[in-house]
Task: structure prediction
Amino acid sequence: MKRIILFFATIISLSSYGQMGNKDKMGTFLTTQSIGVSFQKFEGLNSRIADFPQYKTLKDHMWTLTLGSMKVHRNFISSLSVTGASSMSGDRDKKSSALRSLSGGIDLGYDVIPGDMIMLYPLVGIGAEGYQAQFYKDNSAVDFDVVLNSPTAQNSIRSVKFTNSFITYRLGLGFALKSPKHMGAIGIQGGYTGSFKDRSWKSSENQSLAGAPVDNLSRFHVSLVMMGMPHFMK
Result:
């Protein structure tokens, strides 16, 4: 997951630098921020967790926050983005579960309604996504003194974490309304993200485990997107 952060942060930084030096030749450069919701069922992991009543299966949705950039040149669109997501669940004091992810992607598209007010743009791209699933048990019946005096009891009350990662393909469609002064836009973007292959879940230290459940990525998302021109281009 750290490599995903470094890789896409480097790409976005280099892209921004290049746009600063060539803004007149390269079209319009916009920064993007979006909030939304993502839907994904990890059926392999959930079916295994369901066999253990002390744990709760994962939710099928996460809330997302995305930061990125978009370049529009002669109606052709290229964009870079990094997304953090969380199921906003997981209570340490109860039987519960939490799912978190970090992803990044590169997308290409085309504005099919060129004009001063509206953008409608299909997108296609590739990316990478990393996930962490965490499971808490209800430990309220465990005696304090037992935990204090027993290393075994201390280990038994800890949460369990599993990780997974995917190389992905991305399909999307966006719609936006441009500001009258061409300084930004606001719109909606939806899409689908799939993995090229199924992947086994690993330990919290990213170690392979025998008999681990296998899942693929089949994720739908929708988000509100806000676009703005950077200060150095105004």
About this structure: Residues 14-24 have pLDDT under 50 and may be disordered. The CA atoms of residues 12 and 73 lie 17 Å apart. The first helix runs from residue 2 to 21.
